[in-house]
Amino acid sequence: MSTSVNVPAAEPSTSPNRDRRPLIALSAIIGAQLMLLLDATVVTVAIPGIGSDLGFSPTGMSWVLNVYTLAFGGLLLLGSRIGDLIGRRTALVSGVLAFTAASVLGGFAPSGPWLLVARALQGAAAALAAPSTLALITTTFKEGPDRNRALSLYSAVAGAGSGIGLIVGGLLTDYGNWRWVFFINIPLGVAVALLVPRHVAETQRHSGGPFDLTGALTGTLGMASLVYAFIRAAEEGWGDGRAVASFAAAGVLLAAFLVNETRVRRPLVVLRLFADRNRAIAYACMLLTPAGMFGIFYFTTQYLQTVRGYSPLKTGLGFLPMVGLMFVTARTVPRVVARFGAKRSVMVGGLLTTGGTVWLAQLAAGDGYASALLGPLMLVGVGIGLTMMPLNTLILSGVRPQDAGSAAGLLQTMQQIGGSLGLSILVSVFGTATRHTGAGSDFVHGASAAFAAAAVFTALAWLLALAVRAPAGR
Questions:
Q1: Are the C-beta atoms of 423 and 294 separated by less than 8 Å?
Q2: Contacts for 430 with CB less than 8 Å, ≥ 6 apart
Q3: Fewer Cβ in 10 A, N or C end of the chain?
């Protein structure tokens, strides 16, 4: 799940040239973004096969998703800063090549640790490449109809990325095996790396100060420690020594991160962005909403394949109604926001998302797809479609020009970190529910508890949205 944000770009060092074939340039840029978006969900459908082949536990499998989103979200702001220094085109191509190489490592992974290292490298490479995609669109296409058409197509592809990933993942896993969800990145990465240097102009390089490496390290390691603590507690219990130590380490590292951000010259997180009430609330909602969504993808996928016996392809197609409604709603929500305001759209979307998630929490052994999953997934699809774009509006509204890039980058970071942290918490709820009832193999019981916890996340986001000042969101 992802959103696109129109962030101001660095000035181009050369004016866009008509001979650069803008359509090819746009295809290459969108192809790069699609590759990064696909990898967040294409692996989801392959999770049961990966867990079986590489020996992951039911709770440990969440690391295949979490390690990617942690590296992606934790290093995203640093990746944007690197793009300022070396040029956006160079950053995009370098990130795509690194992502492709990491995909090859993942595809040949002989063990769980090998795969997790490859996923972490993929996330780091994505953090370098992703911030440059929109920036290059703004420098390649002149302001006006050409740029608007390019951004519209980019947004449509970004909105459909999660659904395409689920279906592609199902196809590759069904007709090949799970390793092909990594190998598919090779032709995409090579094509982007060849086309972008030929058809996309480089942007001007800006220095403006050193990297905030201390912030990147303390922030990323702090979140990784917190996620590990929750997953460890799910497997070994809340009194486990490693879990307790990881919680303590997370507290120290995240405190150090906050202190560092108040003192460093160019912080990764511009803390004054949280001074605006609406923006602070929207950031919190952007953290909580993906926290519930990642769990829906994760546990529904496992239920359909391990309990109902669905093939990977059939599982991917099972998400199509939700993703289709999400896409259609997202395309119409700008008119809704223009008429009723961002707050009302978020409020209705939050209610639908929470209602659908509560419905999922009623899942029982023997329930079929049509009777127990189709309805709530459709509700969630409409709810998310009504929620995400208005949250973008609330976050970017009234941002000072010098803070616009940081505000947009922090938005994407909140999404990735929220999804990773949320999934780790839901996995711990799943493990605790099955362990304490003595039903260690009762997946449905644990999944129902996890869905109920996911509903708490979305309900909290809805409650926070009540405090938004409506006029500022219009």
A1: yes
A2: 58, 59, 234, 299, 446, 447, 449, 450
A3: C
Which residues have C-beta within 8 Å of that of residue 245, sequence separation ≥ 6? none
The architecture that CATH gives domain 272-474 is: Up-down Bundle (1.20)
Fold matches, 19-200 and 272-474 = yes
> What is the CA angle 74-412-93, rounded to 5?
75
Segment holding 56, helix H or strand E: none
Model confidence at 144, pLDDT cuts 50, 70, 90, reads low
As beta bridge partners, residue 12 has 203
CB neighbour class for 365 (10 Å; exposed up to 12, middle 13-18, buried from 19): exposed
Structural domain boundaries in the chain: 19-200, 213-265, 272-474
DSSP state of 276: S
* Amino acid at position 15, single letter: S
Task: Out of 15-19, 187-191, 212-216, 281-285, pick the least confident.
Answer: 15-19
The H or E element containing residue 105 is: helix 88-107
Please answer whether residues 360 and 300 qualify as being in contact, where contact means their C-beta atoms are separated by less than 8 angstroms. yes
Q: What is the pLDDT of residues 266-318, one digit of tens each?
A: 787 888 889 889 999 999 999 999 899 888 988 998 899 888 889 888 988 89
Of 201, 60, 40, 211, which Cα lies nearest the Cα of 130? 40
Contact residues for 462 (Cβ-Cβ < 8 A; gap 6+): 346, 347, 350, 351, 353, 354
Instruction: State mean pLDDT over 6-24.
Output: 50
Alpha-carbon gap, residue 220 to 224, rounded angstroms = 6
Among residues 375, 369, 379, which one has the least CA distance to residue 348? 379
Contact 81, 206 (CB under 8 A): no
How many Å apart are CA 265 and CA 420, to the nearest integer?
A: 29
Quote the CA–CA distance of 341 and 322 in Å, as a whole number.
Answer: 24
Pairwise CA distance, residues 231 & 431, whole Å: 9
> Cα(408)–Cα(440) distance, rounded to whole angstroms?
42
| CB contact at 8 A, 192 and 38 | no
Burial of residue 186 (CB within 10 Å: 0-12, 13-18, 19+) is: middle
C-alpha 91: how far from chain center:
20
Q: Are 78 and 212 spatial neighbours (Cβ–Cβ below 8 Å)? A: yes
Token pair belonging to 27? 């295809």
Q: How many CB atoms lie within 10 A of CB 364?
A: 9
Round the average pLDDT of the chain to a whole number and report it: 83
Higher pLDDT, 143 or 364: 364
